[in-house]
């Protein structure tokens, strides 16, 4: 089992928690590792039947639970959101005794079920696929760029089985469950949009063009995109508005939550990453690492991309309090001065940029024209988590 960074946070804090995330990112495994005294798994047909019509049953059971029961795991609570009312009664009545570990697919699903999200009573965390640090010695760049880092798929030793599992995941989960969550009437349009989002993952997003190509109205496309973000299947990196905002492209970038899912949706060969996509996929990996780690460990940090109308571009601009980093990602093992153009242009127009970093696949760090040239794993070691 992989040691998740979020586990350390949850072990340090005795508060009740709600952990959200797409299917198969490891929510149940993580919460079970905290050794709850009582587990209620609503994915079990029997448990679901017992509580779906009688959510008050949980309240009675908690009232009569022995003193040895202090930590309770409610798994897949989005299947019966009414149970969260019983949790509130228990937390309010005995805040120092009971701790709840709750998992759900997304806050959107819970809200749609008119769920009580327990404001002020639980801490909400989001779990994503594995990071490079969580993979540790098992990290293999080509494997990550081809198959992504969903835990169950990554640990599968057979590449053909991993590929089959990925395709099944995209069809069963994204094309069916997320489609149902979006209350889709135009199934073909949603399916086309999903494919277009996968193709655009990591690129600047133009909703008007996307809706036209999918054969959808612009507002319908916006709603579907919002569903993908609410269910944590996609996230947006907005355009940066620095001191030269009049010259900047204002569209953000959209990224799917896992590289393997992106590749499976596009029907890419899954035995290895395509060479002509390696640069895009490496940028996608860095985006995922930044998004996941900052969300868990530096929630006040902000992440943007930078592009001017004249074509000067930097993959990411990371703001950390008084520090601002410009980050460019290259899949090359060698660095040429032409690769530094975007970072130098960013720093020239925006004096608040304190570090200029180019991430590459070489073996040793160096400094060139004031730019830090860092191997991928050296850069990721700078990030929290």
If you had to describe this structure to a student in words, what would you say it looks like?
The chain has 385 residues and is α/β, with parallel strands linked by helices. It folds into two domains: 5-126, P-loop containing nucleotide triphosphate hydrolases (Rossmann fold, 3-Layer(aba) Sandwich); 132-382, no CATH class. The protein is 42% helix and 17% strand. The strands form three sheets. The protein has a six-stranded mixed sheet, sandwiched between helices. Strands 2-3-4-1-5 form a five-stranded parallel sheet. It has a two-stranded antiparallel sheet with strand order 6-7. Helix 16 links the parallel strand 10 (323-329) and strand 11. Helix 4 (56-63) runs parallel beside helix 5 (83-93) and helix 8 (141-147) packs across helix 14. The longest helix is centred in the middle third of the chain and has 23 residues, at 159-181. The model has no long low-confidence stretch (mean pLDDT 88).
